[in-house]
Amino acid sequence: MRLVVVPLLLLAASPAQAQNAADLMACVRITSDTDRLACFDKAMASASPEARAASEKRAAEAAVLAAATAKAAAEAQAAATKARAEAEAVAKREAFGAETVANRSNRFAPPPGEIQEIETGVSELYTNASGQTLFLLENGHLWKQVDTGRVPNVRPGDRVKITRAGFGGYHLNFVKQKSWVLVKRLR
Length: 187
Description:
Oligomer: single chain
Number of domains: 2
Number of helices: 3
Structural class: alpha+beta
Shape: rod-shaped
Strand order of the largest sheet: 1-2-3-6-5-4
Mean pLDDT: 80
Low-confidence stretches: 3-13
Number of strands: 6
Strand content: 15-25%
Distance between the termini: 90 Å
Largest sheet: 6 strands, antiparallel, barrel
Helix content: 25-40%
Order of helices and strands: HHHEEEEEE
């Protein structure tokens, strides 16, 4: 930082000039540039009418600049608030009804860690009055065919896989025949 030394009259001609010289010396000791400049402006304003007029003009310009800066900051804040409100409104419109489709790919996926399929053998087959087949499996589960698809030639002991189907249903996959039917568990 460069320090500017103000030349002072060593011998003051009047007490007012001596006070002005003391004020200027006090300003020289101030380390903050902004505070030092304000001190010099104040000291010089008391020294001459021209300096006082220049200081008042600078103060008026600074006040106008501060007001313009405050106005610009308020306008920027208002514009940012309006933009945020508009973005929130658009986001709300876009999200309307999306809660049912937000995770469409995982909507029917089971929770992590849940069994996805079981494989077992057929123990017995039954056909009910409506032509649907009941499957008693080796693990003790009883499953009923719910679609009208044709059941392949399945015999006790054949291997089957039961997997999850869409909409909460299940497929009974015949391993040897490479076909499946929709089923629901009865027990």
